[in-house]
Amino acid sequence: MSPHPVSPAPVPAPSFHGQSPHIVIAGGGVAGLTAALALHAAGFERVTVVEAAPAIRPVGAGLNLMPNAVRELDALGLLDALEAGALRTRELRYYHRSGGLIAREPRGLGAGYRWPQLSVHRGHLQQVLAGAVRARLGPAALVTGVRVSGVELLPGGRPRLFLEHRDGAVRGRASLEPDVLVGADGIRSAVRAALHPGEGCPPWNGMLVWRGVSRMPARAVGSFMLIAGDDRQKAVVYPMGRPTGPGREVLVNWALARPAGAACASAAERLRGDWNRAVPVDTFLPFYDGWEFDGVSVPDVLRAADSAHEYPMVDRDPLDRWSHGRTTLIGDAAHAMYPVGSNGATQSVVDARALAHALAHHADPAEGLAAYERERRPVTTALQQANRELGPEAVIGLAHARAPHGFTDIHDVIPAEELAAVASRYAATGAFDPRTVNLGSPYEVTVPTA
Ligand SMILES: Cc1cc2nc3c(=O)[nH]c(=O)nc-3n(C[C@H](O)[C@H](O)[C@H](O)COP(=O)(O)OP(=O)(O)OC[C@H]3O[C@@H](n4cnc5c(N)ncnc54)[C@H](O)[C@@H]3O)c2cc1C
Hints:
- The protein is an alpha/beta fold.
- It has two domains: 22-89 and 119-201 and 317-389 and 431-437, FAD/NAD(P)-binding domain, CATH 3.50.50; 204-314, 2-Layer Sandwich (D-Amino Acid Oxidase, Chain A, domain 2).
- It is built from 14 helices and 20 strands.
- The protein has a seven-stranded mixed beta sheet with strand order 6-5-14-15-16-13-19. A five-stranded parallel beta sheet has the order 8-2-1-12-20.
- The site of flavin-adenine dinucleotide (FAD) has 31 residues, from helix 1, strand 2, strand 9, helix 8 and helix 9.
């Protein structure tokens, strides 16, 4: 997809007190690993990612990367590796619970973007990123099995972080004083907790989310992303790979949301928000009885699941400050949002590139972090708020409110202009409309050759 139209002037090799600053990234998820790659591409030589999990394993289900994130991953030279295990999302369809089609939107190249939108397993994305970090920055740049347990800000803004690690059966503790600390440690970030003590658990809206992956014949799931629902519950289903094998099977991602209700265990337990909390499909299968949309049967998809995971619908309240001295936040640690509108991983990738660009253009890292925050915090705050109002998926609630029993022609219920306005307003909120994205990456850093 390169070359990019923007060709910025070279910036001097980043240095702080005469040497390349040591940047520690807490968390080796999508945000942390992309940040390591972006910083390396911007000329930073000493970057270390510390990840609490003992190994980078392909956990989670699927996610969508929108063209603005794919543009940045392309600029990092990762598009081919990513596409080898992903599927281009070409169309999104919204359905009324009764089966009626509310809207269909072309996505990615079909919507006029220069980059595709990708449906991908989170595990594949994380493996591609982790592989590139180890290959480009060296194996020692990604340390697993080490948890950041606390952070202190020293006079002058320098961070001190406390680490806990496990070496076999032996637990160890250590501390480190890098030049810059980036908190990329997700929705329950230890770095964020140190900067904003007393914030507590992520707020919960009372909905539960069930996620999983199924393997099914391609013809049973169509080639589009489906989002269907009514005033209570919704279902999202999409394929995320090309058909393989004699059965022409594809990997299918699905996610469901529904109020927890009285049957739910204690809210406190749900709020742990453990991504690995497995539950039987039968827990929620009956709620989706009869949900079928243009030949895609949601119950059939659920019955074909390898496993199912339950998660509370939690996000974070927007912060009025991410950066304190030489410590900042990116990704979910900075702005966890409801899984609506494909923005969780997308915005994390954009953060990572914006952070590297800002640090490369400021001799003082604290000024670089402040510049990064000035650019990214307003956009992601607007998206967090828009997602609390269900973002582009609000059309489902609108259709249900105006026609609870269904419709013959959606335009009798929601005029075409009103439908289009919901989608374009959301795209404008996140600055990911095709015209803006197609201008090319604003985060290219040209590093002078030695
Ligand atoms: C296991 C898991 C499964 C997920 N599955 C899905 C999914 O199926 N679909 C979806 O849309 N989104 C999923 N997400 C969330 C999604 O990845 C994020 O919303 C988005 O990609 C933003 O990424 P992030 O890097 O900011 O946060 P995350 O992806 O949450 O990554 C944070 C990383 O930091 C590590 N970490 C946490 N605390 C510490 C600490 N104290 N010290 C060091 N490391 C720490 C975590 O182990 C994790 O690797 C999942 C997240 C996780 C952690």
